[in-house]
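_Backbone structure tokens_
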Amino acid sequence: MADQYTFRNPVTAYERISPPKQHQPEPGLDAELTPTADLGEDSYRGSGRLEGRKAIVTGADSGIGAATAIAFAREGADVVLSYLPEEEEDAARIAGIIKAAGRKAVQAPGDLKDAGTCRELVETALAELGGLDILVNNAGKQVAQEEFTDISDEQFDHTLKTNVYAMFWLTKAAVPHLPAGATIINTTSIQAYSPSPTLVDYATTKASINNFTKGLAQQLAPKGIRVNAVAPGPIWTPLQVSSGQPKEELPEFGQSTPLGRAGQPAELAPAYVFLASAESSYVVGETLNVNGGSPTP
């Protein structure tokens, strides 16, 4: 079976999907996604690059977060899985995959729009894993609106709190406990550089995450703590079908990239592993674009 080391044509490495029009209520489930997303559960092969590490991954029930959590576990890390209570079905499956890899999986449901929940998540990692040295701020909210004036105050507030405030609260709680050699990885997006007209609020948060990453990286680098970001392009996850994209655009999702297809979460996981591992020891304040070839600054 092919794994992340297998030589292959990136155009055809994964299926060129044409998803049917579909909708799920927020936050959406991998279990109900058509077609299913590839999280690397059948293909990711670890090589001990994160042996003994202790990680928090937010949005770890599905999509990019789930693929990252699986990869971390197969590289030797124990993982605290952060997700919304409504995502329990997906989270339980990912926890099972991590345990099957011989690593510890701690399920931590909660809404990160609450500062107290963010602080409790860090305390959970310290208590259950005995420490913390990888923080992945990945949880995100994305709701497309054709008209700017249709973005409600509540939507704007929830998007900012999920994507930016939670990152701030979690990072602030985690930093005092991070040893030299620890890493923080934030999920930004191609939307930070090339915003879609239907995603004004979401794109605003992703640009903010880029700036936060580069500023904080300079402050924490002398302490031996590296801060970086990953900027995905169009990746097939439940986010897209739970109002993240207009339904009529789903059949063409990702096909405008130079590779001609949407990406799969499994294709993002190696980027997070690289930034978490000692292999990237001189990479600080970087935004690693994984977007199928779309130009970025």
